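lol ok so funny story. i was supposed to be doing the assay writeup but got distracted and ended up predicting the structure for this chain instead. priorities right. anyway since i did it might as well share w the group, maybe its usefull for someone
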Amino acid sequence: MKLSRSWLLLPLLFLAASFAGCNGNVHVTGKVTYANGQPLTIGQVIFTDDYYMGRSDLDKNGEYSIHTLRRNDGIRKGTYRVYIVSAFRFEETEEIKDSLQNYRFDKPVQLIDDQYMNPYATGWVFEVKKNCKIDLVVYPPGEVPEEERTEEAKMLFDPEYRKEMQRKQALERGEDPDQPIHKKRRSVNPNLL
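and the output, tada:
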């Protein structure tokens, strides 16, 4: 049986149509700044809905324009969690010398708080229905005001807060929060050793 060329191209056409944004892509732009108005110029803004992702590098003014496969193709309409990745700069360190050669390791310096680098902790969730501008404000590591710290960020990055919440949950379940948790030991089949 011989297939015509048009049948062979059909799967490629479906794939191309899905990437081209048959649902009508929209353009999302914006600026990322610190609370003092200074732009964040290093990093990448990510929009995700766990299945689909749009991204954009920050420029020298802290501005971004979300795209999927190529510049200016926009993003599908939908609800997205937003976060930032790669917001690090590198500082030169002292040169290390040994008998064979010299080494220099650049030290990474984190520019924004951990809260903004986790899609579940930022608190940034946006419904994108049309072309829009979304500006984001970030803080340096450890400087997020308490009223802007999300519950998720506290649970992920603050061990004392997490411990206190686990204590409250134990009390709500009627358990003694100070009682150590005894885990059931797993037995090992000696024939498998």
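Helices lie at 5-20, 151-157, 159-172. The chain has three helices and twelve strands.
back to the writeup now i swear
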